[in-house]
Amino acid sequence: MSLADHTRYRIFKDILARNIMFGLTVFSLLLAVIIGLGLYFKSAPILNEHSLWSMLSSSSWRPFKGEFGFYPFIMGTLWVTIIAIVIALPLCLLSGIYLSEYAHPFIKRLVDPMIDILAGIPPVVYGVWGVLVVVPFIGDKIAPHFVEYSAGYSVLAGGIVLAIMIVPLIISILTEIFASVPKELRDASLSVGATKWQTIKFVILRKSTPGIFAAVVLAISRAFGETIAVLMVCGNISQVPHSVFDSGYPLPALIANNYGEMMSLPLYDSALMLAALILFVIILIFNAVSRIILVRIERRFAL
Amino acid sequence: MSLSLVIPEKNMRYPSEDINESTILTIVNNERKKVVPSSSTILNPLISVRNLNVFIQKNHILKNVNLDLPNKAITCIIGPSGCGKTTLLKTFNRLLENSSEIKITGEVLVDGENIHDRNIDVTHIRKKMGLLSQRPCPLPMSIYDNIAYGPKIHGIRNKRKLDVIVKKYLSAAGLWEEVKDRLNAPANRLSIGQQQRLCLARGLAVEPQVILGDEATSSLDPISSKTIEELFVHLKEDYSIALVTHTLRQAQRIADHIVFMYLGEVVESGPAAEVFNNPKEKLTREYLSGYFS
Ligand SMILES: Nc1ncnc2c1ncn2[C@@H]1O[C@H](COP(=O)(O)OP(=O)(O)OP(=O)(O)O)[C@@H](O)[C@H]1O
Ligand SMILES: [Mg+2]
């Protein structure tokens, strides 16, 4: 092969590789659009019947009477997710810092695979554990101190189970992020006489802020959609929770519990599709907003 | 991190697994070299290194280093790449032990106190021995905060005091005029040369006793280089300065004292004029005349 041929061949491969990758990227983007559109068309019948706003703000869910209020489910989803993040984030930050900055390599070698195992346990197992341990613990030990009655099946139980499920994910992302902070940066801070903790607080956490934020966003997206484990411990009563000990009914649980049953009811099928669409849009908006915030953080901290 | 600080008085102990041909050779070499008097010329050294050995991952990096660095003077450490100059400076401010598998034996006395002493506060040593790293590394914050970082860490909270400090040391490093209008801009937008001066200012802002500069002017143009050199000459009235440099002319310009290292050993050290005009060792002569670099 002559040199010119060889060059042409290399350029051809370059162009080919680029186009294939471009095609695959477009395809995966298209998939999201297709799912969104599909959900929209499937929920069109109910959107023609009732106004979207009235359904979003109504609390009454009586499919037999043709009343479809999504407000309790949206609130259920938000409660469970927020509780999960509030529990998981401090835990993950502190153990992530410990593992990457303080832990002896031996401990790290021991803990890393355990975190991977935790991440690999199927959600239904967490759900069973939640029913057997978390729910009775809340019902018997915690709730009586605060409210008159709670069976334990509550948004708190859902939040705890969900928190434990997302902890391994967040920790493993965080340790990666802390590990990617260059050693020179630590040295620069230590060189002026900073302690290790000062270095972590003022330099490493600062440098990692966008990464931490991205990890939290990923975890929240995951938490929004988590279905089975939450469904098993949340009580699934279509009411707006007013305390962490109230039952809730998140959107994914609503869909998973009811899809395929009572489909003869008018508009029921379409209402469940709308629930899925709402979930889809919540996650979409959430990701868009967090992307904007992330850019802001990066600009502000000049990282 | 496995770190063991064995600090025997004068009797060196080699870990048995590290004994090999080269270490034995070193021991022999050192027996020979003990004859060369290095401390006789320095009256009250600020830093004294006695039988310092450093192992990184079982590699013998610094071999039985004996050194005295004079107070209020500039010592230039010269030697070919990879001979252990950075390692020596990092041992002086105890930064080295943050890497994994480090073993340090011997003594480094600063002001008469052993920096590896069990009761000594590491942050105190690091504040005292200001190290400017080989590659400039601005902290992920504004120019102002980079300089104020050290003083804040050591408890200065007063904003007006901090303003004064920031201005003082940015001026000292010859950076004030260039950045005074954008003190709140992120430091990593500065050019590499500016970053180097920023790091110098950051190091000076905690008022160390000793300045350890690892090629502090390597990414500067001749003029800024000159500014920094003049700064060092000015600073030596109050500080002791140890500079690693690859530029022999720079060493000739500013050094009072020269340390020549080769493959982890101190081959020769002495007053600059003596070493440059009349080197005792053949290796030094060859290095100075550019046979190798
Ligand atoms: N973290 C480390 N792990 C393993 N070896 C190391 C490490 N740091 C330094 N070394 C080795 O120690 C020796 C001395 O390195 P050092 O950085 O002190 O050289 P130097 O004299 O500063 O060189 P230069 O002039 O190129 O900066 C080199 O052989 C290097 O490979
Ligand atoms: Mg070096």
Instruction: List the helices and strands of chain B in order.
Output: EHEEEHEEHEHHHHEHEHEEHH
> What's the total number of strands of chain A?
2
Distance between the termini of chain B: 34 Å
CATH superfamily of the largest domain in chain A: MetI-like
H/E series of chain A: HHHEEHHHHHHHHH
Proportion of helical residues of chain B: 25-40%
Number of domains of chain A: 2
Radius of gyration of chain A, whole Å: 24 Å
Protein chains sharing the most extensive interface: A-B, 24 and 33 residues
Q: Could you give a short account of the major beta sheet of chain B?
A: 6 strands, mixed
Which structural class matches the secondary elements of chain B? Answer: alpha/beta
Query: How are the strands of the largest sheet of chain B arranged?
Result: 7-8-9-4-10-11
Largest sheet of chain A: 2 strands, antiparallel
Q: What is this structure's SSE topology?
A:
The complex is a heterodimer of chains A (303) and B (293).
Chain A: H1 3-42, H2 44-49, H3 52-57, E1 61-62, E2 67-68, H4 71-102, H5 105-120, H6 123-146, H7 155-179, H8 183-191, H9 196-225, H10 228-233, H11 251-258, H12 268-301
Helix pairs in contact in A: 1-12, 4-7, 4-9, 5-7, 6-7, 7-9, 8-9, 9-12, 11-12
Chain B: E1 3-6, H1 21-33, E2 47-56, E3 59-69, E4 74-78, H2 85-92, E5 102-110, E6 113-114, H3 122-128, E7 129-132, H4 143-153, H5 159-172, H6 176-179, H7 192-204, E8 210-214, H8 222-235, E9 240-244, H9 248-254, E10 257-262, E11 265-271, H10 272-277, H11 282-288
Parallel strand pairs in B: 1-5, 4-9, 4-10, 7-8, 8-9
Antiparallel strand pairs in B: 2-3, 2-5, 5-6, 10-11
Bound molecules: adenosine-5'-triphosphate and magnesium ion.
Can you tell me about this structure?
The complex is a heterodimer of chains A (303) and B (293). Chain A starts with a helix and ends with a helix. Chain A has helices at residues 3-42, 44-49, 52-57, 71-102, 105-120, 123-146, 155-179, 183-191, 196-225, 228-233, 251-258, 268-301, and strands at 61-62, 67-68. Chain A has 303 residues and is mainly alpha-helical. In chain A, α8 packs antiparallel against α9 and α9 runs antiparallel to α12 (268-301). The mean pLDDT of chain A is 89. At the A-B interface, α8 and α9 of A face α3, α4 and α7 of B. The complex binds adenosine-5'-triphosphate (ATP) and magnesium ion. The site of magnesium ion has 4 residues of chain B, from α2.
